[in-house]
Amino acid sequence: MSYILSVSIFPVDKGGESLSRYVSKVSKIIHSSGLEYVITPMATMIESENIDDLLNIVKMGIEALKEDSNRVYANMAIDYRKSGLGRLKQKVESLKSKI
User: Fold this and answer.
1) Distance set, CA 38 to CA 6, 71, 99 (Å)
2) Distance between CA atoms of residues 28 and 7, nearest Å
3) Where residue 83 falls among pLDDT bands split at 50, 70, 90?
4) Given 5, 11, 69, 75, which residue has the most CB atoms within 10 angstroms?
5) What's residue 84's pLDDT?
6) Contacts of residue 39, Cβ cutoff 8 Å, sequence gap at least 6
7) What is the spatial distance between Cα 1 and Cα 87, in angstroms, rounded to a whole number?
8) Which residues have CB under 8 Å from 82's CB, separation 6+?
9) For residue 53, what pLDDT is reported?
10) Taking 90 as the threshold, does the pLDDT of residue 13 lie above it?
11) Please, what is the Cα angle at 31 between 36 and 29, to 5 degrees?
């Protein structure tokens, strides 16, 4: 089985156009999880066999940003499939082969 989480977590009470200083805190949490992930300009995709691992990452990301922010926004979508891991790469390769 495989869960893919698409997640964006960032503070909404910071001025300026760039939030990478804050988003990188969440990215470090994702990286340290040891799970397969892909960073995109608008969200990060993470794959796991365990939904609790993914939800815990969201929780830790929000908690990390609460240290510097009064308001944190989190947006997520989850795709579940009974087949095994490796779908992050498979989905992209399948689409590219059809272009």
Assistant:
1) 9, 25, 21
2) 14
3) confident
4) 5
5) 87
6) 27
7) 10
8) 1, 2
9) 98
10) yes
11) 125
Domain hosting 45: range is 2-97
**Contact at 8 Å (CB) between 24 and 79?**
no
- Counting the structural domains of the chain, the total is 1
We report the CATH number of the domain holding residue 85 as 3.30.70.930
Token pair belonging to 57: 């990452």
pTM of the model: 0.90
Residue 29's nearest CA partner among 60, 2, 50 is 60
Distance of alpha carbon 63 from alpha carbon 72, whole angstroms: 9
How far apart CA 80 and CA 68 sit, in angstroms, is 33
